[in-house]
Design goal:
The protein is built from 6 helices and 2 strands, in the order ααβαβααα. It is mainly alpha-helical.
């Protein structure tokens, strides 16, 4: 986190970086408040590259915490490998095996679209959009490669 802060602080002076255990919501709430977080100001929470390492109860609690503060969430999540088309299963599986080994984390967590939607709905969100990676790829690059098929 220190490296990100060092690299980005000169460009983005309104970004505060904190390190916290996301399972300990009271602790990171306190850290956020000390860093200047004000729940009355519209806030965007970005969950990028992190939902894989959060248990369902922790992720659900984070959704509830954010919703209680009227936050918008943008995030991504991995589909369970068994629903991903076979030719695209091995790469993420290998990536998470390496991450698990290097981080000593027990492994990645995956969520179906229904599970992810249900957590957001249970937290009180009503405006929810799930955008498949192939559609995001079109927005980013103009093409669908390598996400040309459903559940790629």
């Amino acid at each position: 986190m220190e490296e990100k802060s060092r690299i980005l602080s000169s460009e983005f002076n309104r970004i505060e970086f904190i390190s916290a255990d996301l399972e300990d919501i009271p602790s990171w709430t306190s850290l956020l408040e000390k860093a200047g977080f004000e729940p009355s100001i519209p806030t965007l929470m970005v969950l990028e590259g992190i939902t894989y390492y959060l248990t369902k109860p922790t992720l659900a609690s984070i959704f509830e915490w954010a919703r209680s503060r009227h936050m918008t969430i943008i995030g991504e999540f991995g589909l369970p490998p068994e629903v991903v088309i076979p030719e695209h299963r091995e790469y993420p599986k290998r990536v998470f095996e390496v991450i698990t080994k290097l981080s000593h984390h027990p492994g990645a967590n995956f969520y179906s679209r229904e599970e992810f939607l249900d957590m957001a709905i249970q937290a009180g969100y009503s405006k929810i959009s799930l955008i498949p990676m192939r559609d995001m790829q079109v927005l980013r690059t103009g093409g669908t490669y390598p996400f040309a098929k459903e559940n790629a």
